[in-house]
Design goal:
This protein has about 140 residues and is an alpha/beta fold. It has one domain: Metalloproteases ("zincins"), catalytic domain (Collagenase (Catalytic Domain), 3-Layer(aba) Sandwich), CATH 3.40.390. The protein is about 45% helix and about 15% strand. The chain contains five helices and four strands; from the N terminus they run E-H-E-H-E-E-H-H-H. The chain has a four-stranded mixed sheet with strand order 1-2-4-3.
Amino acid sequence: MIQVDGSNTELCDVVRQTLAGEGVVAGRVDMHFVDLDEMTALNSEHMGGDGPTDVLSFPIDGIDGPEPEVGGRQIGEIVICSEVAENQAPEHMGDLDSELKLLSIHAALHLCGYDHHDPQERSEMWARETHHLKRYQLSHPGDQQ
């Protein structure tokens, strides 16, 4: 069973469905929503970035390999800054709800090992995002460019 803990049950379900769609069968993900200041600090500390970002993923035990002896598999943590999402939504996904779904899918894919540092990785991750967005009758913003 995949367990996703967070304050937004709809987005927890988006993460759960994305992980299941990627073949993950068990584990736990914690999902957090933070303000601009906290996201700025996290982005600086963990990514070396300046300013806030929309979403960060922190893999912990990963999605495969041996099950930890104590406490089960902690797949990772997802941190979303709703204020950044709200600011970028009009030019990205169109509305906040759709933007948060994309960010949740994006973060879950990072926990599955996907990345976007080079064009090949970006293309693969984009294809998986597009696949999962269809579940919600949404198009990837890159498809609209």
